[in-house]
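Risk mitigation, structural track. In case the binding assays with S-adenosylmethionine fail to produce interpretable data, a predicted complex structure has been prepared as a fallback.
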Amino acid sequence: MDGQGQGERIREFWDAYAQDYDSEPDHGLISGTMRRAWRELLSEALPPPPAELVEMGCGTGTITEILADLGHLVTASDLSPAMVRVAKAKTARFADRVTVRTGDASARAKPGPAVDAVVARHLVWTLPNPEKTLRRWVSMVRPGGRLVLIEGQWGSRAPQSYVGGPPLRWEGGIRAEVLAAALRPHVARIEVTDLDSVDLWGRTLSDQRYLLVAHVAS
Ligand SMILES: C[S@@+](CC[C@H](N)C(=O)[O-])C[C@H]1O[C@@H](n2cnc3c(N)ncnc32)[C@H](O)[C@@H]1O
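Fallback model:
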């Protein structure tokens, strides 16, 4: 990760949060209504199963579990070993199609077969160099594949990062038009859908949340 000290503090922050993370309604998807809403959203955003997916910053594996349940083949990773432990336990029954491991989403993509889609929810705001990382994700996707990003802007840019030190580039979240502008030179087409349904978040929102699907040229 770029900026070694800050990367370490980011990992420590999420390690410390891992056990309690799912107590937030939209983290743990604590109701059947919420799980159905996320399942429907992801089903429509992704190619038909079984697709080869990489999920970045999987956290406790909440989205990973839905992707697997839809029938996809998922390689999920997270910077935080404590998050990875929770995600592994949550997805254990899908061991035939899910791999969860510790990894930095900013790291250079390892040479390997291209995947159908890269998926991430609520990750880009905490990356030190999000534009560079997005280009790497595009390079991992096969021609005609896509990035499926669930993001939002939930805070204003604070003078300090949430882990101390200077604020991250997209601290507090990122508006859809800024994320789209960063991706546009590298993809063929971008679709943005506002996500304001209470069924997704378990509460009425006062901030911007959205799904951005970036289609790579065929
Ligand atoms: C807000 S949580 C989102 C977790 C999950 N995607 C979800 O939607 O529930 C952000 C996650 O990103 C992870 N993370 C932060 N920086 C990362 C990086 N550079 N590479 C991989 N994961 C990272 C954190 O450990 C944390 O699990």
